Request: fold
Amino acid sequence: MVQPISGQAIYVVLMREIKRYWRAKARIISSIAQSFFFLLFFGMGVGSMFSGGSFGPGGYLGYIAPGIIGMGLLFGSVFSGVSVIFDRQFGFMKEMLVAPVSRTSIIIGKILGGALTASIQGVILLGVSTLIGAFSFVPLPLFVIGVLLSIGVMILITAGFVGLGVAIGSSLNDFHAFQLLVTFVIWPLFMLSGVFFPFTGAPSWLQIAMLCDPMFYGVEAMRVCLGSPVSLDLITIFSGIPVIGPVLVMVPWLVPILVLVLFTSIMVAIGTFLFSRAQV
Amino acid sequence: MAIIEVEELTKIFNGDIRAVDGISFKVEEGELLGFLGPNGAGKTTTLNMLSTLLKPTSGSAIVNGHDILENPDAVRRSIGFVFQDPTLDTELTGRENLDFHGRIYGLKRKVRVERIKEMLEIVQLEDRADDLVKTYSGGMKRRLEIARGLLHYPKVLFLDEPTLGLDPQTRRAIWEHIQRLNEDEKVTIILTTHYTEEADYLCNRIQIIDFGKLVAVGTPNDLKSRLEGDIVSLVFKDPAHLMKIHPLFKGKDWVSSAIPVAGDGGNAGGMSRMMEIMRRIARGRGGMGGMGGLAGMGAGGGHGGGGIRIPKRYKEMIAKAMSSKGGLSAMMKAGAKQLNLLVDDGGHRIPEIVKIVDGAGVELESVELHKPTLDDVFLATTGRSIRDERGSFTETIRRRRITRSARGMRVRG
Ligand SMILES: Nc1ncnc2c1ncn2[C@@H]1O[C@H](COP(=O)(O)OP(=O)(O)OP(=O)(O)O)[C@@H](O)[C@H]1O
Ligand SMILES: [Mg+2]
Reply:
């Protein structure tokens, strides 16, 4: 079946997401405050236990800051994806589903809107982290470039997780399952992403779990942009891949980026598929 | 040419709820077709299938030349829909909801702005247009919903109880707009409603649907004239009196039918409906054949005589009622005080009717005579008063709430 994409439809759905995001001030504020507390209390508190350079040039604060930003991206994007449940609950879904546009256009608008709002959130958190001094170790010109690159990475990460949210939201019928989703999907994704502890040195079963967590690559990618090196073990693992292995060793940041691109494409495809099958 | 062709359309929910049961019908281009039926008859489910929101269990339908299963995108490009349930984004303003609709339906900016202004005027929401919808009253939300649905001029428009709970003035304004869309813009319209005066006023043709099947089709006048004679309504002081009198009229050859009607606050509507079902079971077949003077009211296309499927919950209720001694009269005591008789030449029969009632030693509260209305047709075909809008409990509450807030708005505004 042909599903023509309508730019206008993508635009209106996207604008709706942005308006709704902007009007939910309490959500914005609490998400920023949550990240802020993590950085300030956890980052500085736990950070004071480590004096050496085991967490790279930025110390513990510089180490967890990209991950805390990643947390904002993760929660924001998955939530905006599963908001299809609420759209269905409150009926607006019907308005979109009988509209003379393909469901693909609607879902692309939804995913772009979710990715954009979650990334705006990420940029705000980036600003907060900078103010706290998490990135004071990075030279200014590099930092400016890093910020620009990390915005690109944010969009990539969030698009994938909005896709995941849409896929889950389209398959769940009631929003009581929401709490289960937070506990069994979002928190593990977050905890395994290597925000608080490095990949190197973790028990091997944990390493395997981390390797399966797309958010782990997201945090790695954010770290690369913001001045921390990619985990060496990660490169070693992926260097074994024939043909592209050696390239990966030479350009270490390619690993997380390629994994993210793959993850995001698959999630967007699955989300779109499950969404377009949905009935009211 | 038929713009909608429905062939044996069926929807079964959860394996056993036969919401729509093999209905077939055609709608000509430019028609304004009314769908009447008791709660749960399958009206909304039918519209949902025609608008590609639901996949039929079996059967097919063509809308504006496109198959709903093979080409749903093209079907959606041909239609508009005002839903029965709320479908607004309450986090947006009224105007933003309309703008979303206008844009996603591809209205050019100039047309969009004009239509939004026009519709806001019709539903009298100009001064609240820029407030968030969550601050609206129920009636205001309903009006906004209608305004949105009428913003673009599709080939086919589905209106699912559009004026539910609105005050008469707003309803009138919306009727006029609907009529204008139909006549000037050549929009074919299917409208469901529980207001017979709405169906009477607006519709060229009416289909009465019950238990997912068409039970009667025709123009409003057509349907009314099929009830030959006059309706004589007898109101008793006590439902028990009705019980006593009811059988006395059954044998009379000048009485085509005698149907108990729900009294104020009574639930006899549901009861009489159950009795109707029992009557059908007792006859061992369904359809309209057993309805006395109504024989032949079955829908065209050979659907009149098909066996009806009784929903499980009714079966259980019926079984219970029949097993308990005096179950039937207990049911009657539930509230029906009014008996509607379809009588040839009612005016001349009234003295005789009163005499029969007197002879049985029962006191009448009132007697009323009128020409058959659509309400009577509805009652006769579904065994249920159309005013007895007793759906689920929440449904009733919701309707009340909408009505109340709509009224409240009128007083303030
Ligand atoms: N999603 C669903 N799942 C299960 N059953 C459903 C669903 N939607 C409708 N039904 C059932 O299908 C039947 C027909 O419902 P429908 O909404 O089409 O009735 P309706 O004629 O529109 O009634 P009303 O006048 O109350 O709006 C009802 O018995 C209802 O309970
Ligand atoms: Mg309905």
Observations:
- The two ends of chain A are 20 Å apart (CA to CA).
- Chain A has a mean pLDDT of 88.
- The interface with chain B takes residues 1-4, 8-9, 11-13, 16, 19-20, 23-24, 90-102, 279-280 of chain A (CB under 8 Å).
- Residues B 43-44, 84, 160 surround magnesium ion (ligand 2) (CB under 6 Å).
